[in-house]
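Structural prep section.
Before we set up the soaks we want a predicted structure of the protein with zinc ion in place, mainly to decide which crystallisation condition to try first. Input record follows.
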Amino acid sequence: MSDYVIRGMAGNGQIRAFAASTRDMAEEARRRHNSSPVITAALGRLMTAAAIIGIQCKEESDKLTLKVKGDGPAGALYAVANSRGDVKGFAENPQVLLHARADGKLDVGGAVGKGELTIIRDLGLKEPYVGTCALVNGEIAEDLTYYYALSEQTPTSVSLGVLMNRDNTVAQAGGFMLQLLPGATEEMAAALEQKVLAAPPVTAWLSEGLSAEDILHRLLDDFGLELTEKRDVSFRCDCSREKMEGVLVGLGRRELLDLMLSREAVSVHCDFCNTSYTFTRPELKELFKRNFRSE
Ligand SMILES: [Zn+2]
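Run finished without errors. Recording the tokens verbatim:
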């Protein structure tokens, strides 16, 4: 079963709903970054959120970036999604090990610490839309709920979950997001809140074998759920040797010349997928000739 995000409406158009099934994406992030369980959980939650919010990306060049920058040992975490359903992400310190919380759960909030959540929507306009707010507890879902209340005045309920196997691979990952749109009645808000409060952790539902569709039906059947969109998503990085050549050329004639003369080889690293591209001296010379010879 591959990963996907679904979107729907309910409550006569007053409830916007999203759900995602993202096990493979979270496992691929773990494999690429060789991340510890707590970082796999943090990154899996953030990438699931990026996949969900990223469904708003429609054009080829649209891009959504989520950044969580706390003072905890994880350092900054990033997740980026685009209109093709590609999602990539990384944590600055992927090998952080922390004791589990008293309730037995992975201490994502402890790994993230206090800090800020930033959402960057690059939707092909002149300037990307950038919103920032303080982290509530670093657990990602509550931080997003707070973000939407504060930055967009949209009452939002977010649930994100990553469940690990005993061998530290990802067993389940996914999430849902419900938003009340302007015009929603008090009764509807209260009824929806009851549904959300009564819901188990999303990984419990996924472990029972529920699909993303099943999850939205459990939450919203009383409100007349109508599914409107589905998008396949996966961990995919858009880096390439050509792009890294561009990075080297972007250093400028002088810098590239210095590198070429002083080093046997240069490695350019892509943080998002943990891939290194090595350029030997002859390759650097060739690159230099191709780009700066005429100057
Ligand atoms: Zn990459």
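Observations: The domain at 4-235 is CATH 3.55.30.10 (Hsp33 domain).
Flagged for discussion at group meeting.
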